[in-house]
Amino acid sequence: MADSSNNHPKTLNFNVGVLGHVDSGKTSLARALSSTASTAAFDKNPQSRERGITLDLGFSSFTVDLPEQLRAVSGGRGYDNLQFTLVDCPGHASLIRTIIGGAQIIDLMMLVVDVVKGIQTQTAECLLIGELTCPRMVVILNKTDLLPPNKRQTAIDKMTKRLHKTLENTRFKDCPVIAVAAKPVGPETEEPQGVPDLIELLKIQTYLPHRDPGGALLMAVDHCFSIRGQGTVMTGTILQGALAVNDTVEIPSLKVTKKVKSIQMFRLPVSGAMQGDRVGVCVTQFDPKLLERGVVCTPGSLHTLHAALISVRKIGYFKGSLATRAKFHITVGHETVMARVTFFGLPPGGSPQTPTTDPQPPPSDPHSPQPDPSPLSKPFSFDREYFHQDEYVIGQRAAGGAGSDPEQWALLEFERPVTCPSLCLVIGSKLDTDIHANACRLAFQGRLLEGFQEKNYSETTLPRLHIYKTKHKEGQVERVTDDYTVIGRNLFKKETNLQLFVGLKVTLSTGETGIIEGGFGQSGKFKIRVPEGLSLETKQLLSSTSKKKGKGGAKGEPTKEEEAKMDTQPININLRFKRYVFDPHKTMVQS
């Protein structure tokens, strides 16, 4: 956003996410790159400082002259400088939610890899999150000082080759790989090595990010503190919309609104800011302890949801199955919450399936706006019928692994309400999986299509959702009473309320169609009317079985052998119907 005072040069903010496995040296790299540390930078958490591990999204920045390629395209926008804001994302598994929270505003990802260890579990997870949220990446091989000088180059070349192989089938194919030593140890040198080259590479990789000041404000707050005599400052990044001095903003988690007293961008006062900017916002009469991190928005623009419908797609590296009624950690907006998941799709043989596809590669022109990385944002329709699935369905794969899964959705029922924007990215994971097990814990991704704000959504909204299960029951014809009526058995339990089934159609294995007329006696037997009448063959088959029944055992009961013979060719009765999962009346429907 242009600065209010003309004395300050106009700066373009470019957000670079620094991701990688725990202890790969992300924070030291950010420190080596930075000149101005923002307030949230480099681990406020004392436990984290002792271990030298990032526990929160640290932010720091450095400014360079605007690169030539941006000068050419920024034309009328008149930027003078380029500020790189480094978002140092945690590598801890349990903090995956933080990474996803920050990923929405990352323009370029730096994946930091320990050159000695190569790709580890969390490196792979960071790569996945990058694929879902970010158009470009640079890979940094860190800790090159730990390699023996005479074998250093060979080891770097070997690791570079391995990484290119790993990235071959991702949207980051052919991305640049550069070797550095951010925090060298040993007598050789204390100075970071390779950092000036890295800065030049980052400059080449920048593009004009698509920034839109329109729409409601949404700002991710990562730190909150008070300044005596001024008020409370919330620092964070504007994810969407714009903000100006004297605007009123809402803190939805606390249901309070505050007026913006002043705004700073990296210690310089400004009158306003927009999407992608990193800002400090000062408000009065607000206790900073109430909001360490969270979101701030235009009043009334965010919704608190008890349940949601999402488009869904399994993440290929996840090894488990995705079962209905299972619980997953759902990261949505800036929150991670447990939810029970119900998967559903289009009816078998119904409308054509629209395949979901992988995230698109970025456009070849680096300066054009980036596309939505997910084609999963099609509006949801309550007017269609959907088929209940016991688990997520994997589509047919060709020999080379090509192919796609059928279009599918999921109902998420949250254990506690969550506040989030519509159409936001949703990631489902199994974060309780052992962090040391070498397995991907990200299970599925999708977009939030519909949210349910009422607490009693299961009574008010779910009945509008036509998800059905098909049911099939099978019984046998016991005997014939006349040409149009048979008595059936074994279709219902003794205690079943047969009234519910009166009027439903059944088919006999001999081909006739009948209608259930009601119960017969007390043992769960029932009467079927066959409007077209029984065929001659069926009557013969039934009369031969009833004749057999006439001989033998006491009081006309068939003998064991006869019963066995009789049961070799019973006439079966098939009852098929659909039941809508969320229908409060549990009505049985037949097409």
UniProtKB/TrEMBL annotation:
Q: Which CDD domains match?
A: eSelB_III, SelB_euk, SelB_II
For whether the record's keyword set contains Electron transport, the answer is no
GO terms of biological process kind: selenocysteine incorporation
The record's section on InterPro entries has:
eEFSec_C, eEFSec_III, EF-Tu_GTPase, EFTu-like_2, P-loop_NTPase, T_Tr_GTP-bd_dom, Transl_B-barrel_sf
**What is the first-listed, main subcellular location in coarse terms?**
cytoplasm
Give the residue ranges for region: Disordered. Answer: 344-380, 542-569
Q: Cellular location of this protein?
A: Cytoplasm; Nucleus
What are the GO cellular component annotations? Answer: cytoplasm; nucleus
Q: Which UniProt keywords apply?
A: Cytoplasm, GTP-binding, Hydrolase, Methylation, Nucleotide-binding, Nucleus, Phosphoprotein, Protein biosynthesis
The UniProt regions of compositional bias labelled Pro residues, in chain numbering, are 358-376
Q: Which GO terms describe its molecular function?
A: GTP binding; GTPase activity; translation elongation factor activity
Kindly state which reaction or reactions the protein catalyses: GTP + H2O = GDP + phosphate + H(+)
Q: What does this protein do?
A: Translation factor required for the incorporation of the rare amino acid selenocysteine encoded by UGA codons. Replaces the eRF1-eRF3-GTP ternary complex for the insertion of selenocysteine directed by the UGA codon. Insertion of selenocysteine at UGA codons is mediated by SECISBP2 and EEFSEC: SECISBP2 (1) specifically binds the SECIS sequence once the 80S ribosome encounters an in-frame UGA codon and (2) contacts the RPS27A/eS31 of the 40S ribosome before ribosome stalling.
| Name by which UniProt lists this protein | Selenocysteine-specific elongation factor
**Source species:** Coregonus suidteri
